[in-house]
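for the writeup, i need someone to sanity check this before i put it in the appendix. the sequnce is what the collaborator sent (i think, or maybe the updated version? ugh). structure was predicted straight from it, no edits. if anything looks off just tell me and ill rerun, i have time this weekend
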Amino acid sequence: MPHLAAVGPSDGLARAGEERLAGEESARGAVRSERRKEILRQRREELGLSQEDLAARLRISVRAYGNWERGLVKEWTDRKLLALAEALEMSERQCFWLFRVMVDRDPPPTWRAAEENRLPEDPAQRDYLCDYAALMESTPYPSFLVDHRWDVALTNSAFDQLFQSVRPHPTALPDDNFLRFVLFHPDAAAVLEDHEPAWCVPLLAQFAAALAAAPEDEGLRSIRQEVARDPFMEAAYRYGVPHWLSMRGAEAAETDGAVRTVRHPDPQRGLVRCRTVAETSRMLDEMGLMRITLILSAPQGAPAGPVRGGAGVVHQQGARLRAVPSLGE
């Protein structure tokens, strides 16, 4: 321990301090070791892959990969970690988290996530998604594309801004899998108000329906296994959701048109009303994708309420239904 040489602590105090620091380092090391094991296992199961599958992707033996997942590695080199990030189809944020957990530093600045993993092989579909990304970016509302597993294919800047305070997580980032984020990320309740009744329960009901329709889907089965490992989540899935549906009806679980509340990233806005709008197109449907947009109570730069016009008539600024003439026509 650092101290003034002329007035040093007694040998007993010095030893006690060293033992305390050693104990703290040991405890931190044990926590880090468990997190290292979890991040690999959880991501592998999220992708529906076995240890044999990962070993084949990495071109190493199954025994060698088993040692990696158990943390029995002499040194985590950049080469090993980058190979893992590619094999586990990690995004740039997930790779950052991987390096931070494994070696407590950032990945090499030259590395970028292989977004090709999420793009379809068909050139026409790829071009369509590029143009659709521009369309999504033009809206001030948080908007994202998901598939039947809730894997996120595209997000816009408003979506990223809404979830900008969310901390890294190995398997439940909002721009990787939205269902996992809602169910398992510790920061979800900080953004999604009335988190359990308004967000978790409806999504669990949708998940149950998706799993019933595709019971062999590895991605859905992986989520089911993670739900089963949490006693409270498992109870909600097996008993709470059926009871909730019997009381409210199946339409209560629908995404399109649901009105919920989120915490706006601008502290001055605070809690805002949010309507979810779910839609697809022919091309998106062929790719198995659906767009979800969160319509916040007032878009950025727009008036928060109606503006009173002449003759005491209240008009809402902005778009209106063209099929319904205004009172002045």
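Residues 201 and 240 are 8 Å apart (CA to CA). The two ends are 83 Å apart (CA to CA).
thx in advance!!
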